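Sequence only, no structure available. Ideas?
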Amino acid sequence: MPGPLDGINVVEFSTMIATPTAGMLLADMGASVIKVEPPWGDLWRYAQAVLPTEGRPFMAYNRGKRSITLNLARPESAAVVRRLTEQADVVLANNRPDVAGRLGIDYDTLAAINPAIIYCEGSAFGHHGPDAYRPGYDIIIQAMSGIATSEGKVVNGVPQHIVASPLVDSACGLAQAWAVCGALFARERSGGVGQKLEASLLGTGLLMLGMRFVRIDAIDREPHAQIRESIDAMRAAGTPYPELLSVYEAQHFQSPGNIYYRFYQTADGMLVVGCLNAALRQKLLAAIGLHDIRFDTGYDQYSPEAAAFGAQLMTDAEAIFRAKTNAEWLTLLDAAGVPAGPVRFVEELFDHPQVLENDMAADVSHRDLGTVRMAGPLVSFSATPLHAGDLPALGEHTDAVLHELGYESATIDRWRSAGIIL
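Reply:
I predicted one. Tokens follow.
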């Protein structure tokens, strides 16, 4: 049975992570996605390469697409872009505006060819404001959005970025795929009116901060202004960053004693608990046999007594968890209704029954590498199921797509000899 976007044609002019993720998600939904790469390939193909042009990062964000090569800087490519655009419903791009215009793949150029086009553009900071000119990658956005300084992980006075996942890039890809689906629905209702969509890494980062990026003016405006004044003054005075960070963290002091949402070492491993409301916290306390005075009437969370109690509570909880094994604790916590789980390594998940029985992993094929297991489609549809497509080798579908666009073999051979395609 076809997916929900069956019949939708997507042309992707993008590289790296965010916008390619959007293309992959649309392909999972059944859209036909043609990825246009230069003859030398998306540069992400060369990171952690297992074959000369096949890197793991590229595989992670480009399944289900057809790869064609085309040197957009050559004048011959303009006619190919026109034909691709004429039959497209969606264009995905993440080039800087000046680059897109120079290559003839900007919104104005393509909308003149196909006014019904949905053109989704990803950027680092948006196209306006003092940072609009900057290139941006996940680590830069983690820093400039405040994620890194809100994380609480500091080594030798340096904030530590989240390294295991390009979380902002990935979330921005989700945002772009979400936006495209909304725009396609709007086009359907409007009788075929296309539009331009813009998504930025910075905007995605701010959304991901959640409650941390919420200012209630009646409560927060004055304290926030005071923090800004102290930061500005220290920066103007040339205060070393570690000292500035320590002052900032002191202004966001967290009283010790968080035994409810954290990792614990056990007798033979590590587990995690996550109790985000009072009822769950009481269940955890009952399971480990502790009492928290912060649930008592009249508790002052900012008092010296509370801080000292919290520190001791953490020490006591840690000692209790070290007295039993992971299996023993998970049996007890499950019975008590306490959210908990073991700490796993990625390699343990590829064949884990919880992953496999819920189709969270998918086996796809690669022309040169055979079977590749990777994360499966994000959601399940009962009537229009999603499907994880195969991984494209560099330029694997160039000839087929060009033939579909009406080009003859002699033209394709001439372009290949001239280096216009691979």
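The chain has a mean pLDDT of 95.
Hope that gets you unstuck.
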